[in-house]
Design brief:
Gyrase A, domain 2
């Protein structure tokens, strides 16, 4: 369960996003999309994000569209706000995307 001190302020979210150039703050969470070279690679990314989610006990909203994987992190146990766990999970998901050759296609700012 997220503690109140783990919830990020707006300026802390902006600071975190400076280190996550492929992510945006939208709809109360950290969001991005990755385009994989193949549908099979997209499924590999989904599996990798699933393993990370289980390890971190922190699960994203995920949408798969052929070669595109859309991810959204927010902490439901913190009222749907962004926490440090979301930043860590987004960082790990980005590394997993790079490993399968997926390129970021974040929504416009």
């Amino acid at each position: 369960m997220a503690a109140i001190e783990d919830v990020l302020t707006e300026s802390q979210v902006d600071e975190a996003l400076a280190g996550l150039p492929d992510w945006r703050y939208s709809l109360g969470g950290l969001v991005t999309a990755y385009k994989a070279p193949t549908a099979a690679a997209a499924l590999e990314l989904i599996a990798a994000v699933g393993r990370l989610a289980e390890e971190q006990n922190h699960h994203p909203d995920l949408d798969w569209r052929y070669r595109r994987v859309l991810l959204r992190y927010s902490s439901h146990d913190a009222g749907g706000q962004v926490t440090r766990r979301d930043v860590a999970a987004a960082t790990a998901a980005g590394a997993a995307a790079a490993r399968v050759g997926a390129v970021p296609e974040p929504p416009p700012q």
